[in-house]
Amino acid sequence: MTMYTFGWCSEIQQAEKLKDLGFDYIECALVSLNLENETEFAARLPLFMNSPLPVSAFNIFFPGDLKVVGPEVDEERLQRYIYKAAKALNQVGAKNVVLGSGRSRNIPDGWEQNRSEEQFTQLLSRIGEEFAGTGVTLVIEPLNKKETNLINSVSEAVRFAKQINHPSVRVLADFYHMDEEKESLQTLIDNQAWLQHIHLADTGRFSPGTGQYPYEQFVAALKASGYEGMISAECTIRDPETDQRDSLAFMKRVFA
């Protein structure tokens, strides 16, 4: 029996509602903790630590103005941010944190691809070291080309993870971005050893079960990969009253 847990990407205020609906966890934005503002962070942290539903995952790792590639990288600010992130994630008890942050990692015009990849590799290495012993895994999220020009496929993300080869650095597969980039579902099987987290959406980036995405094939590939673990819906909601409930029922059914 394969073990999956289902979560929803939302703000912490939704935790109670998502718990009542039967979700296993909530996935929140790391930037919503306001790590760089001591006063706001101190006020926000208890909401996550005392959440009625475990905050097992976080996304949106970096604020958009904190660049991780290009000529504007502020090493000291970056180092401070990663240190604070590791500590906070450990305190909350998170298992996975998603490194999407398309704006932060976008390669600026005129900046070399090679240098960007070097900077990104150093970043992953730094995060891996900082996360060692915290119980938190960083998962690299491939994003479609409209959102960033660095890492647009699962296989590219895996190439970076392999270079680091650190137990705290793994990869996420996002059905929406895979569909946008027309990435083969075979990549889930080919890169099975590196998969640590899954994001789901459906046509138009709406909630799972409302569109035409080939869910049966996706689930078959994921099962063939032997993946077990967290699966989060990351999507736009049209009807708050029914979308989350219906999507959870759909996800449980299709992954059963």
UniProtKB/TrEMBL annotation:
Pfam families with a match to the protein in the record: AP_endonuc_2 (PF01261)
Location of the Xylose isomerase-like TIM barrel domain: 16-253
The protein, known as: TIM barrel protein
